[in-house]
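I had to read the description of the data format several times before I understood it. The format is easy to grasp once an entry is in front of the reader. For illustration, here is how one protein appears when written out as sequence plus structure tokens:
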Amino acid sequence: MTNPYETNLDPNPANYQPLTPLTHLERAALVFPDHVAIIHGNMRLTYRDFYERSRKLASALSAEGIGKGDTVSVMLSNTPAMLEAHHGVPMTGAVLHSLNTRLDAAIIAFQLDHADSKIFIVDREFSGIVSEALKLATVRPLVIDYDDTEFPDDAPFPKGDRIGSRDYEEFLSSGAADFTRDGPADEWESISLNYTSGTTGNPKGVVYHHRGAALMGYANVIASGMGRHPVYLWTLPMFHCNGWCFPWTLAVVAGTHVCLRWVRAKAMYDAIADHGVTHLCGAPIVMSTLLNAPEAEKRDFEQTVSFNTAAAPPPGSVLAGMAEAGFEVVHLYGLTETYGPAVVNEWKAEWDALDKAARTTRKARQGVRYPSLEDLSVRDPETMEAVPSDGETIGEVMFRGNIVMKGYLKNPEATRKAFEGGWFHSGDLGVMHPDGYIQLKDRSKDIIISGGENISSIEVEDALYKHPAIATCAVVAYPDEKWGETPCAVIELKPGATLTEAEVIAHCQGLLARFKCPRKVVFRDVPKTSTGKIQKFALRNEIAGKA
């Protein structure tokens, strides 16, 4: 029998258009043309300016033959050019490839070759390392220099030499402000390329599509509690998962981007106080930078600032310090493969009445699926069966939905493996609580197996962070003849603090089962990535080499 709801009701241009985040900026420029979209030093760009400059960039790129299937790479700091690239590049149908600004020349060259980059926009701050990379790469992209006019005079280092054949502003001036964007004809078309960290071999290229980026715009607004015209401070690198998609998100609510080239305490406090910042994102290290700043660098501000943070849940002392300083911390979790945040710790009002220990327990959970994620599960990776929702049975955290990557560029085997069983396998181990909130226990490679017992490095780190002298810590496996491996704690102390190995072990024994306590303690700076994540792989290799 014919279904009347599927008869003569086909999609057509009037009732179906592919989702794309490019419409967010178009609408903001139409409705709020004079509202300030970007603050960068003394520079102010309205939404009219922002949209016009993005269209000029797209027009200039098109004149160079850039279109669908092409890659435009950028090595830019958190500047207006980076925001313009997020809109102007996909307006041509091309794919934006944002490079981590802390990479070495060999990895930059690998990414340029793997992405087959046609054009490369480079901030002069990074021209030295990029020049080395271009000598190693086989591709020969058109290089465009971005000369930041707001580059501070008191920068710790001078700008690098010009290495391109074109200047960014000159390139923009050659474009047309009335450029009409090219699609996308299909929302599955690729919009951006982000490479994983590559801690075990060459990095993998994660491909995003227009649909996911558009949905993240709406979801970020909801998860972050953004009203109309929020003011967002760029403490998160825009190269990291496309800045968790916030370069596209802010236009949904006509917000203001406050650019920040370097994460420094005084600059952050000045921006928050002077511009009325309402939201920012970053790793826990950004919170520590704010809280540990000299009093002379701190500023008072009237508004409560929402701080989105990912990675491990912040220690209770840090959360308390942030609240006292005027920040409300929102705990998120996700991966490069999920467009950044895909899980949020949705805080419930009734939890405010719990005692401190119970509140801390709730805050330690990663949370529930993002508004734009269809499903979140903890499963046995062998049987693909969901583990019991008992808060104890460990399985692999898996994702399913429209904010999961298309796959890995030119790597079908890795893509197939990541999507086995119809779910994206995160590689993170966790539990599902009875109320549907997940909690990470470890990366699969970070679980310490001692005498046949699984020890969560996160659990041990949580105990360590309860000591007031510890600023940063990481727990990794240490080879042991008897037990196979045992926990080793690498600890970075707060300024002026002192602590001994015996005191650390005694502290842990008061909070953990004895077999979970560190048997070795190393005091040193804890290595971190450019986004503030602790480099456990480096510590594992170092500790294993010294055993």
